[in-house]
Specification:
8-stranded antiparallel sheet, Rossmann fold, 11 helices, Lipoxygenase-1, binds 2-acetamido-2-deoxy-beta-D-glucopyranose
Amino acid sequence: MGSPLHAPVFLVVCIFIQSSACGQGLGTEPFGKSYGAAEVRKPSQEMGTRFLLFKDENDRRGCQLRVQSPETLQECGFNTSQPLVMIIHGWSVDGLLETWIWKLVGVLKSRPVNVGMVEWISLAYQHYAIAVRNTRVVGQEVAALLLWLEESVKFPPSEVHLIGYSLGAHVSGFAGSSMDGKHKIGRITGLDPAGPMFEGSSPSDRLSPDDAIFVDAIHTFTREHMGLSVGIKQPIAHYDFYPNGGTFQPGCHFLELYRHIAEHGLNAITQTIKCAHERSVHLFIDSLRHSSLQSTGFQCSDMDSFSQGLCLSCKKGRCNTLGYDIRKDWPGKSKKLFLITRAQAPFRVYHYQFKIQFINQIEKPVEPTFSMSLLGTKEEVKKIPITLGEGIASNKTYSLLITLDKDIGELIIIKFKWENSAVWANVWNTVQVIMPWGMTSHYSGLILKTIWVKAGETQQRMTFCPENIDDLQLHPTQEKVFVKCEVNSKRLKQRSR
Ligand SMILES: *[C@@H]1O[C@H](CO)[C@@H](O)[C@H](O)[C@H]1NC(C)=O
Ligand SMILES: *[C@@H]1O[C@H](CO)[C@@H](O)[C@H](O)[C@H]1NC(C)=O
């Protein structure tokens, strides 16, 4: 497609696989040692996996839990009456822990849970293929910790929630498959689980729904380049969320790099490249931080249907909450859920399906551009542009997805305007010449009788009719007001009395 996105995607995939085919100088060096993420620097002599527990939201050092040393549980303040949430980081290009970890620790600490981390940085700071091999070993060590907790202090694995980012998602999967069926882990959340060397592999070689009682995943960077994508595309959980389709994320565009460089200096390069991958983490953090503004995902077969607004149903468990407070029922098979998000936190938007039925009395298709203003009980959103793909030929009902950043309350009035573009002016002249009745009046031949609206977040369905039923014709530059049909029919009854 020649989109400017291809350059960063290519770069990330190169970094991921560190392939010589990508040319020299694309290894770890350009993303220098100075990448200011680390609070905790790992002493290089200490290899292997460490389990850390955090006392409060400002604790950045953590307290080390040692398997077979029960006294460390007390030292680290492990509370056996609370669940255990363990964060598992991913592959590392610089041997440093990333800053999102502390943000996630901070927000998790606002809940009544033990918060820990699986620190495997020395095993993750390797060539990608070696780090991949290490995920299995680290997963087994996590399983050993959990089995020991059950044995020593009767802490059940069902009270454990593993949150794994990128390669860490597969570490969680291997931890789960290393437990036997009687000791299943309660929940695993995969945050943009890594794709290279996992996509298409068998369920036992990656995170899969049978690794825990409940498994959810958020896919945010699955855009493919040369057959590879940073995040895994296939569903691998009970609920797989694909925000904005899962391929790429708003606000992460490479063109924004210049703004990022102005803000963060050259570290912006790494930040920009990781942006869409790491968005999965920030969506999850947002679900804890703005718990009154949770995002809902809706089951759909693909983004195409979702973009037409066809999937905003919550019937029979077809929608679920993204993030920490997800509804934990487990469907028989994986469900793919889609949603739109904003470019920054709070990420939540309000999804609406608009179904617009046109009656075109002209033979010729017309290609008008419209805008809609929506007035709700709380707020008004003005002039949302509507593009209807191909022209309107004969009678057609269009379905579209409209998302709003703010909560307008209950929708009460729609103002539908036919924008008078220069392009239209030409068409209009042609139509007038061709159509004899076009000469006499402003008769456009285009009628809009009904607009059906479905609000995804409230599941409310509404039908809107023209306020003035004596003039149903749409005219260029004119705005038509639509109100709820029930309101209209009541008014009619009153009039006839
Ligand atoms: C352990 O957790 C329980 C349940 O949340 C709480 O009531 C109790 O106060 C906690 N104990 C300590 C020592 O914090
Ligand atoms: C379009 O709908 C109108 C009104 O319902 C009807 O009279 C007309 O025959 C329809 N035209 C086509 C091409 O279906």
